[in-house]
Design a protein that fits this description.
This protein has 426 residues and is α+β, with helices and mostly antiparallel strands. It folds into two domains: 207 residues, Metalloenzyme, LuxS/M16 peptidase-like (Cytochrome Bc1 Complex, Chain A, domain 1, 2-Layer Sandwich), CATH 3.30.830; 186 residues, Cytochrome Bc1 Complex, Chain A, domain 1 (2-Layer Sandwich). Helices cover 42% and strands 18% of the residues. The strands form two sheets. The protein has a six-stranded mixed sheet with strand order 1-2-6-3-5-4, sandwiched between helices. The protein has a five-stranded mixed sheet with strand order 7-11-8-10-9, with helices on both faces. Strand 4 and strand 5 form a beta hairpin. The longest helix has 19 residues. The radius of gyration is 23 Å and the shape is globular.
Length: 426
Amino acid sequence: MKSTIKEIVLKNGLRVFLEHLPYAEKCAIRVGINVGYRDEPPQIFGVTHILEHFFFKSSEFREMLEIFADLEINGIKPHGGTEDSTTEFWVTCLPKFLPEVIEIFFEVIGSFDYDEEEFEKEKNGVVTEIRNEEDKPDVSQVDKVLVPATFGNTVLNRQICGTPESVGKITKDDMINFKKQYYQPINIVIIVSGNFSERKTIKTIENTFGKLEGNFKNTREPIVKILGRKRWTVKRKEGINQVYLTVGAPILKFNQLTDEEIAVLYLWCALLCGGRSTRLTYRLCHKEVDTYENVSADLNNWGEVGLAYVGVEGFDPARFSKMLKAIFEEIRSLNSKLVRKRDMEIAKALFLSDYKDELWNLDFRTEEILKFVFGYVAYDFQNIVKVIEKLNSRRFKNIINRLISPSRSKWTVSVLAPPNIKLEKI
């Protein structure tokens, strides 16, 4: 990562990373905790996600309404997220409000006093969230069909939110004890990016987060192998009439990919589904089918392993074989043939247009820095534009063949389909 990002380690081991961008109007702060759903004991699956829901609930410092009002009166909207190995919360604000945000975030981290009635209400809210997601085919397809089929015997075959049954059994004491174990300074990272006073920010963090105590460092077993991977899986779901198809291939050592390798994977996604004229989107939505489908190609990243996948949301079951054949033909084509110059130019233009917009997004910058700090990635997000601009078709073909195999045996086909619909394997 470029030296423009300054690292400071507090006496208690908490790390702070500051990226000063004087041209920015605002600043963003993100607090990351090195704990996620893969760290949960089986008896309290879902506790990490419940804790995320309690970031801005009532505590010994402020009532819930007071927390939100103190932020929102300054135009600040708080956000939180749970991943396999991290829990995060973040905001974007004007520089003058940053000290108060830091104080509120410190209270969120340092509080272990929660209202029992509020806890039970929030548990019910999480159960509702789980059931709502189960009702959405596009949400459940990757997380609940493809990922379990690809990583069946690893910790990744867990749902972030837990299950209605596991969440229902979690007590307030379970949540508090889990937080006390993992929310310790050596597991916490603070990222600030944008326009702010470095001196004032460091002082505020030292006067708040510097008070945290504890030296428990979270360590976990790596995902060494992909065990129990299925090549074909079909999940039947009541209440849907169409088929949802996703194919995916694991990418080992994702967190060791170079700038050039991650750039090639980004281009692979853009070449397939970056726009209406790109290969797979054009073929499925115009050339052969002449109807609209939501076609996408994307990457998932869990640090030491990643997943490249292509998905088609909601289509007539009678066209299943045609869809699957088209997907693998386009994937094999990118491995076996040089990409035409115009196709490469289109994919680069589409990707870079979006990516350059993201570089102006302070939330995006803090997220990328945090992924680097926690070891999810090794590449420098600030260098991707230059790398992609230099890539040519021959170099792309050489690298993509190292990263993604065109062989069907290396891919998992996952299908979400209505009951009693026969699907032909090809």
